[in-house]
Design brief:
Blueprint lengths: L2 H5 L11 E3 L5 E3 L4 E2 L1 E2 L2 E2 L9 H13 L3 H9 L4 H8 L10 E5 L5 H4 L6 E6 L2 H14 L4 E4 L12 E7 L8 H11 E12 L1 H6 L14 H6 L12 E8 L4 E7 L2
Parallel strand pairs: 6-7, 6-9, 7-8, 9-10
Antiparallel strand pairs: 1-2, 2-3, 4-5, 10-12, 11-12
The protein binds S-adenosylmethionine.
Amino acid sequence: MKSQALAEILINPYNHQSVHTTEALNFEDTSGNNIPVFNGIPDFLSLEEVNGLNKKYQHLYDRFSRFSNIAERIMALFIDLNRLRRKWMTDVEVRPGYKVLETSVGTGWNIKVLPDFAEYYGLDISGGMLRQAVRNKLKWNREMQLFKGNAEYLPFKDHTFDSVFHVGGINFFNDRQRAIREMIRVAKPGTRIVIIDETAEHVRKQYRRIPFVKNYFSSEAEEVRAVAPVDLVPAEMRELEVKLMERGRMYQLSFRTV
Ligand SMILES: C[S@@+](CC[C@H](N)C(=O)[O-])C[C@H]1O[C@@H](n2cnc3c(N)ncnc32)[C@H](O)[C@@H]1O
């Protein structure tokens, strides 16, 4: 996407100032804070020190990203990954011309299975996962604009997106409520928001059995967080719904903004 068109929808998420492009093709806010662009990906983490759980899981996914391709190939021997992802995406609303945002886009697999008549935007905290997403989008010939950032501080103007969704990270964000409020802020009124993540059962039966991954999910604290965060959704949201998927191993929380 052209940087000037991109600047139209971007802000510095920490002070909410608008941004413009610089001669070096980076972005800059009105106070002169620089947002560098690497490989076509604006890096908003250059403005933040990542800490707490966000740092722990950024580390996990930076490590995991090196094996993500091989892990997908092994999984593909047992399950049809495209079909699985399509099933997860059932309630994500996509219409021609829609601007669709995935927070925590990872390597881009969910966007791969969505219809190609919309504009896709994906943000992630892991540089490793984003590097793999860049390779994937070339391999799949799929257009998606990527951003390095924290889902708790989205670098987009209010009411930018027609559809906003998230899969697989929110349980272990530092501040889940802030992340949900940010998804609402950047969505247009009437937008369906879909949040999918693992239940405690999945943490117990899957994550604790995978070498090196299990070290990140070894305490009771992870189970306590692995529940649909219904109580963190503002009361005024409409059509609130929670459903269990994958035989109780995943939850989906969805609602519509006002
Ligand atoms: C299980 S992966 C899911 C990736 C992708 N959504 C999918 O379904 O394939 C979880 C992702 O959440 C990202 N993540 C973790 N904490 C984050 C945060 N605070 N902000 C943005 N992304 C985060 C990780 O880097 C990782 O890519």
